[in-house]
Specification:
Layout lengths: L1 H4 L6 H32 L2 H26 L4 H24 L5 H25 L9 H29 L2 H11 L1 H10 L12 H13 L2 H17 L1 H4 L1 H8 L4 H25 L5 H21 L3 H29 L5 H30 L1 H22 L1 H4 L2
Length: 401
């Protein structure tokens, strides 16, 4: 089991990309913590907090399909480098605005949108690159370790971000995030040139249609995409609105927000480790649906809890369930998609998976002022549990995968 868990790291290229991505993710979470807290502080509006998350994710809906076609037509490594440079530039602009004392909420919202555009092109390329770095039997572990680096950063980043925010100021959070993009850039350069896709006479629109046709002819793929979409609409807002729980439910400040974010991240790391350890075993569909039900139960329990210690336990278990579901579903999608279409397939998957995030943030943000964060998120959790049970009962082909 130990060998299976660390199988992906036998590949030098995967080790490079993983280390670079982890460095950048730590910087990103430093900025996320500072940015979320400061948007709430500057505006006093949970809606604008949700709007900031919405604008950071909505470009996935608008541009990922084009990004997927581009990822299947050019060196994915070069496309990723360009995406990293664009995101680093936005972080440095925000750091400069804070240093000059000239920052306004609309500027933060605009830069969030621009970062989202860069991710819309980089995301499909990154997801399509990962399976080329490891053998087929190591793909599940590689995807799980990719989730681990993201969620390890979600633990380390907020801790470092909280220290930087309280001791040094927001400028350092954003500046350090900008510098962290040097990690993946150097890693991608060290990979060297990759195999270029064969050129075809297809137009961009024809290539997009071909990817969509491929997905439509595979019912299991459609079910996985629908599952990912609803999961992110209902599940991700619990992370987005943790500042509201810290401030309004527990009557605390940034340190409690950091604690909640870190506890969720630790749970996510352990959930991903469990996926990496069990890896290529059968009935991954059943695992994904079972952990989805567990996620819904944990979100509802966290939302209704008023005890900080108990809330941390529910958040820990919810983080583990969220990442286990995500890693398993993503592994199933990657295993179905052939390499020559992987950029387009993962772009469609990203549209629904990442696209559900801004919609969920915006919808939840509009309901929280009226009904309160605990009530809205408790309903979200209940709906997730019902969704998982419905899929188990009716989508037997998916459950048997």
């Amino acid at each position: 089991m130990l060998k299976r868990t660390f199988q992906a790291f036998e590949s030098r290229d995967f080790r490079l990309v993983w280390a670079g991505a982890c460095t950048s993710s730590i910087g990103t979470w430093m900025q996320k913590l500072a940015q979320s807290w400061l948007v709430l502080q500057l505006s006093g509006s949970p809606f604008l907090l949700g709007l900031d998350a919405f604008l950071g994710e909505v470009p996935i809906l608008l541009f990922s399909l084009v990004g997927g076609v581009v990822a299947d037509r050019m060196d994915r490594r070069r496309l990723l480098v360009a995406s990293q440079i664009a995101q680093a530039s936005c972080a440095f602009v925000l750091a400069t605005l804070f240093a000059l004392g000239a920052v306004q909420v609309w500027q933060i919202l605009t830069l969030s949108f621009l970062v989202g555009v860069a991710q819309a092109f980089g995301g499909p390329a990154y997801q399509a690159l990962i399976p080329t770095l490891v053998p087929a039997e190591g793909l599940s572990a590689a995807i799980a370790w990719n989730s681990i680096q993201f969620n390890l950063a979600r633990v380390v980043g907020p801790v470092l971000g909280g220290l930087a925010l309280t001791k040094l100021g927001a400028t350092w959070c954003f500046g350090l995030n900008g510098a962290s993009y040097l990690g993946p850039i150097l890693a991608l350069v060290a990979l060297g040139p990759r195999r270029l896709p064969e050129r075809t006479g297809e137009t961009m629109v024809e290539s997009m249609k071909q990817g969509i046709r491929f997905i439509r002819t595979r019912p299991a793929m459609l079910s996985l995409i629908v599952l990912a979409f609803v999961m992110t609409i209902l599940g991700i807002p619990v992370i987005v609105f943790l500042p509201v729980f810290a401030r309004d439910v527990f009557r605390q400040g940034p340190s409690t927000y950091t604690l909640l974010l870190s506890v969720s991240g630790i749970g996510s790391v352990l959930g991903a480790l469990a996926v990496a350890a069990t890896g290529h075993r059968g009935r991954q569909g059943t695992v994904a649906l079972s952990t989805l039900v567990a996620l819904g139960v944990c979100i509802t329990a966290f939302s209704l809890s008023r005890n900080l210690a108990a809330s941390c336990v529910f958040l820990f278990l919810g983080g583990a369930s969220l990442v286990a579901t995500f890693a398993t579903v993503t592994s199933l999608v990657q295993s179905i998609a052939p390499d020559e279409m992987r950029g387009r397939v993962m772009a469609v998957y990203s549209v629904f998976f990442r696209g559900g995030m801004p919609l969920g943030s915006l919808i939840t943000g509009s309901l929280v002022p009226r009904f309160g964060a605990p009530v809205v998120l408790a309903v979200n959790g209940a709906l997730l549990a019902v969704l998982g049970l419905t899929f188990i009962a009716r989508r037997r082909k998916l459950a048997s995968m």
